[in-house]
Amino acid sequence: MARYKRVLLKLSGESLMGQKQYGIDEARLAEYAAQIKEIHQMGVQVGIVIGGGNIFRGLSGSQKGFDRVKGDQMGMLATVINSLALSSALESVQVKTKVLTAIRMEPIGEFYTKWKAIEALENQEVAIFSAGTGNPFFTTDTGASLRGIEIEADIMLKGTRVDGIYTADPEKDPTATKFTEITYDEVFSRGLKVMDLTATAMCKENNLPILVFDMDTVGNLKKVIQGENIGTTVHN
Ligand code: UDP
Prior knowledge:
Elements: E1 6-11, H1 26-41, E2 45-50, H2 58-63, H3 68-91, E3 97-101, E4 110-111, H4 114-122, E5 126-130, H5 140-150, E6 155-160, E7 181-183, H6 184-189, H7 197-205, E8 210-214, H8 220-225, E9 232-235
Parallel strand pairs: 1-2, 1-6, 2-5, 3-4, 3-5, 6-8, 7-9
Antiparallel strand pairs: 8-9
Bound molecules: uridine-5'-diphosphate.
């Protein structure tokens, strides 16, 4: 029934705001937890990376006078806050989780290793990888690429507000059309903003396909797992 055995789900922090201007929308959080529970019940091993843009982004912080490295560290801590929120929401619907952190901070989460992650996944726990890569000047997209490759996921599912990759920004250009699939090389040559370059290059070099889809429409995550043709797939 499930098309994939192990997936890396990337969620943006910004989506977690829902209707709010800042922080966490509990209704959106509950929707995400319910969608994740559905695919977990199908037997899919789920690793998750969630961004921190609803709380703090290092780059925008540095434009306001924050030191870039400190700003990025604040951003990484923001992803930990979101990871704990998601873990709590999943546990409240009886899904076991394990929060792993890229920076040591027990007892908030266990320090990440590939083997702890795989062990959690094989024990039917949803593994939540927080604090990005642990390094400044990276994004959670790169964190998601890295963790997806490390845990040998079949695919990275990038849940966004948009239902796929378009020839141009569909909110600005009404003639923009959606790709069903596209190669990494075409993403680069067309200058499409799927993820940042570092993240996209990592996926290309390590042959991890990405499926970009609209996660904010309830039920879509299950459709993706069932192999329904929604969103855009990026591959070599
Ligand atoms: N960040 C970082 N290193 C990482 C991952 C994230 O420094 O490996 C910081 C960076 O400042 C980033 C912030 O954490 O702006 C939040 O992550 P991101 O912007 O990727 O969140 P999203 O846009 O997905 O909500």
